[in-house]
Amino acid sequence: MKIVFFGSSAFSVPPLKSIREHVTCIVTKRSKPKGRGYLLDDNEVKKTALELGLPLIEINSFRDEEAQKIKDYNPELFVVASFGLIVPRWVLDLPAIGPVNVHPSLLPLYRGPSPMQWAILNGDEETGITLIIMNEKMDEGRIMYQERVSIKKGENMIDLSDRLSARVAEILPEIVDRIGMQGMMEGTDQRHEDATYTPIITKEMGRIDWSKSAIEIERQVRAFVLWPTAYTFLDGRMMKIFDAEAEEITREGTGRGVVAEITKEGFFVKTPKGLLKVREVQLENKKRMRAYDFAQGYRGLVGKVLR
Fold it and tell me: For 146-213, where are the alpha helices, taking DSSP H only?
């Protein structure tokens, strides 16, 4: 079977490799300049395409002339996993069998671009993997396959993404083989009345509000660890927090953003409900490091107020 694979992130790579023998072309978002030198930083899917020696089409949008080349591969099946662009109707109509989309959620919950982040942010105990027959509407296609996956205590977005991606790589080859032998599955309609939607994450969503409880801030740290990363300000300088844990004990009215204590586990910050144990940080223009090491080198940290 001739498959065109669409993907742009690290999540896409294990599923891509799992069906590599069928893939005739990869479509990914074009690399963007990064850093002061404006160097092109290839995404993980492009690196994998080059590693596997597979044809690659890079686009900014489906209006690009480059997108027309997809037709040249006479695809039978599309597999779309964390691609990052809405696929228009004229493209969805190209494969002889149809288009399949992989979504890391329990659709119809968390339709949209950031389901894993919002599942963690909302304190959900489980998420899932759903494969749908794509249509021109966002994540509204008929469900071919779905399974539930628990979210582990303290798991951040990167770890959850890696785990779901690996699971997709386990189940995808069998589903592709079944489609090859029996044709596209009929699937079942989603309960559209139960749908929820996730917005695009902005940089501002990473700023910590110290009037929230320790557990709410911990979820923010875990959800946004990849981007934009939870951040606050110390003496007017931005400080990113990559790892933190809410203390189990509840202390009402302990304060908002005040650094209370330093131990070898990190430094502790007061919130209106509980303490936040900060374990890994990066102060503006400094390297990322263990919070304890940072605290050892920052004079008078205890008593400072994070804002």
Answer: 157-182
Backbone phi, psi, residue 219, to 5°: -65, -40
In this structure, are residues 7 and 45 in contact, taking their beta carbons and an 8 Å threshold? Answer: yes
Tell whether omega for the bond before 104 is within 30 degrees of 0, i.e. cis. no
Q: What does the pLDDT look like over 25-57, one tens digit per residue?
A: 999 999 776 655 555 567 899 999 999 999 999
Per DSSP, the three-state class of 238 is: strand
Rounded CA-CA distance 304/112 in Å is: 39
How big is the CA angle at 265 (ends 243 and 261), to the nearest 5 degrees?
A: 100
Task: Tell me the β-bridge partners of 275.
Answer: 270
**Alpha carbon distance 228, 226 (integer Å):** 6
Residue with tokens 């309960």: 191
Backbone angles phi, psi at 63, to 5 degrees: -80, -15
What is the rounded CA–CA span in Å between residue 78 and residue 81? 10
Nearest to residue 220, comparing CAs of 278, 267, 261? 278
Q: What is the mean pLDDT of residues 188-195?
A: 97
- Which residues contact residue 89 at a Cβ distance below 8 angstroms, ignoring those fewer than 6 apart? 136
The number of beta carbons lying within 10 Å of the beta carbon of residue 46 is 20
Q: How far is CA 223 from CA 44, 114, 205, 218, in A?
A: 21, 10, 11, 9
> What span, in angstroms and rounded, lies between the C-alpha atoms of 169 and 13?
9
Contact 39, 28 (CB under 8 A): no
Name the amino acid, one letter, at 165.
S
pLDDT reported for residue 256: 92
How far is it, in rounded angstroms, from Cα 220 to Cα 14? 27
Tell the residue number behind the tokens 């479509």, with chain if given: 27
SS (H, E, C) 260-290: EEEECCEEEEECCECEEEEEEEEECCCCCEE
Tokens representing residue 278 in the block:
């900060």
